[in-house]
Every structure is written in structure tokens, then in C-alpha cells.
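Handout, page 2. Input:
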Amino acid sequence: MVSEIQEIKESLKEIKDRGHSYVLRGFEQEGSRSIDPRLGSYFIEEDELVGIESTSKELKRRLIEGECARLVISLVGEGGLGKTTLVRNVYNGKEVEAHFDFRGWITVSRGNKMERLLKALARKIHPATERVDVEEIDTIRELVGAIRQSLMTKRYVVVFDDVWRQDFWEVLKHAFPDNKNGSRIIITTRNTKVASFCKETPFDLVQELQAWSPDLAWELFCKKAFRDEFKGHCPEMLQHLSKEIVSKCQGLPLVISTIAGLLSTKEKLVSEWENVLLEFETSPQLTSISKILSLSYIDLPHHLKPCFLYFGIFPGDYIIYDRRLYRLWIAEGFIQERRGKTLEQVAEEYLTELIDRSIVSFEVFANGVARKCRVHDLMREIIQSRAEDLDFYEILDENKSRFGGKRRRVSIHGCIENAMEDGQDSSVRCVSVFGSYQLTKSFLCSLFEKFKLLKVLDLEKACFDDLPLEVGNLFHLKYLGLRSTPLKKLPKSIGKLQNLQVLDVRDTLVQELPIRKKMKITVLDNSQP
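Output:
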């Protein structure tokens, strides 16, 4: 009883700590309790487990069949893909329960300390009469030894759910003896580096989960949204709207299940579906998903956070090439120097780490080298929320057409001719324009006059015939992106930009470059991809 009370106390402390790490103090002030956002993953109806049957069977097979050696099975993928649901379903199966002498489930989460994890596991292993002794063990070495001794004669399966740190396994692995009787360890994580770190033998497995196909996503949506009516089938009058809603979920089963559960409580009317579609992003029922995805941002090292937030500057459907990102990050000053490596090589490592953490996805371009990058729409919402809190950038579009004068970065989406009319802010360091709209000479001159401390001016694919000579007054400019514009000539004042690092004139008609010999600049022209 004493140890059980202690375990409850530690769990409550963990919840409180987690609340602080989520920056959820507002909830505490209202008297509410912080709730684990993964709770819904633990309780799911059997008929909702569409799409994971084959993966479940394969996971179960690897648990109860195959090698006698101890195996580590790591499931990796972005938040909301259903890793916890999949493992929980297999873990609770009767065959798995009967096969192992001991089963243990440990939710690791972001702020858990090693000692707490080991004690939680030790409590699960030892009989209730011995649990008080667990609290008296002071060192990690003693805890590891006690757990190892207890598992030496057992066939065990232990799940570590939601692992964030690579060094987690470096200590914990010593607690699990390879007793050649088919013991198994399962790890779920969003970080491919964590999964790779846990793979130490040829028998260990890293399984990357992918977003669901449109057909599977549709099947899950219909089963949950219409479970009480229409026998799990979508009525014809709601099919178009329903498919639009499902497309917004982009294959994430947790998101699909949440929005479908919301719709299951609504009247099956077109007007109700339209209202939900409009309110999709602000639905209270989606708060838990936002919390889950927010964890990925919270866990980022300090140097990666601005790089990740930078994705929000681009429009949602915009193709972002990796090298363009590198050069922009460098110009912004996000990339830290490392001995023996160029800044672009370091930037590449930054992007790779964001990809490894499953918060940025990519496709390899046709040349087999370049990567086209994007972030999930739900992750984009997290970016926008964080960016607003930090005054990281401001988006000007049809919804907001005037610059507020607070942010260091301005991103113009579409034709906003008067966007800078009210702006006069020396703190702006970056202006990006997206969309093939005509930029007048007066607009550009006004831009150069108001924001003289610009470091980045990205006008790729914008439509303008003449780059005003006043661009030469942007002494601090490091990146000038003019790619795919109809420019034919550059003003000689470009030669005054002594700090310019990148001049991108690819896919333009520019023939002459008014660059002085002393300028240390990378020119990207039509001879380069």
C-alpha cells in the first residue's frame, strides 16, 4: 500500500511537470487537471481498428514467434499515426498475455527521469509484498541490477511508449537480460534516431509507420461517424463534404477518429457538416491532437526551433526545396558554425534532424539529390500558434492585408499592393513574396525605403520588370532571391551590397551581373539546378 501511494504521488508529480512543459498554466488557474493527451489512444473500440490489422498481425507474430534472442522492436512515426493504439491492441491480446511470464507498459514521455522509469518498472516486476524495498533503492545501478535479476528467469515483453531521448536506451538496455527465451522490448517514438539507436543487433527491427491511404482513412471515418446510423456507411448527400473533411486529416488516424467522433454526435444534415468543416481548426475536441503535436516542437533543441518555425513563412501548398531552406536559414543567422563543416552542411544536418523527428516530411526530387519538403497541416497550425506568440513572422494575405509593424519577418501571400502602406518598422529583417502577381516599382521602392535593415529579400516567382536601383541601399542584405522572375537586367547598385551572400537569378533573362570583385557571394544562375 505504501509503495502504491508513492507511485500515485510520482504520477501526479509527472502530470504536473508535464503540464508545465506544455505551458498549460492557464488550465491550472481555472482549477482543471492536466490530462494526458494520449489517453484516447488507450481506449478504442475494436471496430475502429481498421487499417492496422495486417500491421497488428505482423507485430504479434514477431512477439510470439521467431528468434529466441531478446529483440527490440521500434515503431517510429509522426504524432497521431496510431503507434500507441497499435501496440496497445497487440499488447492486450490474449495470445500475447499467455505467451509471456511478465508484461510491462511504461509511458516514457518527455520529462521522465531515468530513476523514475526504472522504479516504475521495478514496481511492476516485483510482487506487492516487495514493493516497499523498491523505494529504498537509491542508485540507478542498483535499480538496473534489481530489475535484471528479477527478469533473468522470465520471458518478458516490456513496452516503452513515447520515447524522446537517444540516451534512454544506453542505460535501460542493461536492465534486460538476453536469456534466449524469446523476450521482447517494444519502443514507440517520433524520432528515427531514437529507433536507430535502439537497433543493436541484426534481429532488432525498426518499423516506420506511414499515413493511411485515402481508402483506409475513409473506412475509419465512416465506421466512427456513422456507427449509430446508416450502418457505418456515409449517406450520399454527405459524401462530398465528408471526403473533404477526411482529406484535411491527411491520413492521421488519431485526427480522423477525433473529427469523426465529433460528427457522430451531430445531426446528419448538410448544414451541420458544413459548420464542422468551417470550424475544423478550432474544434475543442481537437485540442488533444494539438497537444500531442505540440510535444514535437517543445522537444526541439533551441537551435532547431527557428528553423522549424520558418516553414510557416511559406504557403501551405508550397514546394520547398532543401537548398533554398539552407541558404535562407544561413542568411537569417540560424545556422551555427561547426569545425570542419560548411554552413550549408550544418544546415543539411538541421533539416535531416527535423525529418528524423517526423515533423517535416519530404520527397526526393527527380534528380535523386534534392529534397522537396513540407509540414503537415496540423503541424503548420502549431507553427502558426508558436510564431504568433513569439512575433516570429507576420502573414499578409486576403484575410490580413496591412502590416502590423511588430514582427521581424513579413510574408506576403498573393496580391497585396498596399501591404506596406502603414509599415515603418526598422526591426523587419526578412520579406518574402509568394504568388505570380505584379509588383509595381512604387511598391518595391517603398519596401526598400521602409525596411533598410533587411537581411533576406525573397521575390522568387514574383512578377516585376524592373528592380529599382534603391535595392543598393539595403546594406545588410545577405539573400536576394529573384528566381523565376521576368527580370532582364540588374541595377548596378547591386555592387554596393557588400554583405550579400546569395544572389539567385536562375530562370531569369539576366545576362550581366554587376558584382564587384571584393564581394564574397554565391551566384545562382541558369547553369545550376
